Amino acid sequence: MFDKLKNLNHKESGNFFLIAGPCVIESKEVAIEIAERILTYTDKLKIPFIFKASYKKANRSKLDSFTGIGDTEALNIIKTIGEELRIPTTTDIHNAQEAVLAAEYVDILQIPAFLCRQTDILISAAKTGKMVNIKKGQFLSPKSIKHATNKVKENGNNSIMLTERGSMFGYKDMVVDFRAIPKMKKIGYPVCLDVTHSLQQPNQDNGVTGGDPEMIETIAKAGIATGSDGIFLETHPKPSIAKSDGKNMLHLDQLEELLVKLVKIRKSLI
After folding, report:
1. What is the dihedral sign for C-alpha 83, 13, 166, 122?
2. Using CA atoms, how far apart are residues 265 and 270, in angstroms rounded to an integer?
3. What residue ranges define each of the domains in the chain, with the CATH number in brackets?
4. What is the pLDDT along the chain (270 residues), one digit of tens a residue?
5. Among 255, 236, 245, 249, which residue's Cα sits nearest to residue 29?
6. How far is residue 125's CA from residue 243's CA, in Å, rounded to a whole number?
7. What pTM did the predictor assign?
């Protein structure tokens, strides 16, 4: 499943994998704190862990929203975390040129849901040789994401994973159709459930995306129960002051307890 990720621990544990971290790099100190604590929990529970953080946020609601601390500085922080903690890392890209740039720093290139049909981005990501995580657009059916995977595969890269992140439900809410997980798995690649983004409440009148973090445990449990290979979530030690997506993040203090519950569900299915 993850042949290219030589530094991914606990691959033989039979557990789900976890992609987790802050929404965006805010500072080196905060990023390292989050990564170290997640690694402690995942090592204890033998969960394969991939650290995730955006190096910049290119898709914000308002012009004055936080977008990042600087591309190179943020990418270097992600790279340092990967090297020092010996874990794989991922970040999202927003155009073809960013694929080439980010590939120098991370192990997995993440294609944002809004951009999952952008052919030039998919081709550029494929040609880096890195694993490509394609997040299914909020507007796509589960089966139609296969066309995005073909764009990567037909450019010489079959190291792909897919992420379900919910579908638009009206203008200001998201819903997860859990039938999507087995349908996407039939395409032939690992499938991950993005728990926290599927609980977003977008398009708020004040320009700040809302969320429903109280439902994180429910959605995550359902994801494991319906066969998701992995769980994606964003977490922060102080979500109320996080610079992006704080409204739908999991508090870092709640992560270990959640993972314990998810491991129990996973074991019951094996």
Report:
1. positive
2. 9
3. 17-269 (3.20.20.70)
4. 788 888 999 999 999 999 999 999 999 999 999 999 999 999 999 999 999 999 998 776 667 677 789 999 999 999 999 999 999 999 999 999 999 999 999 999 999 999 999 999 999 999 999 999 999 999 999 999 999 999 999 999 999 999 999 999 988 888 999 999 999 999 999 999 999 999 978 777 776 777 778 999 999 999 999 999 999 999 999 998 888 877 889 999 999 999 999 999 999 997
5. 236
6. 27
7. 0.95
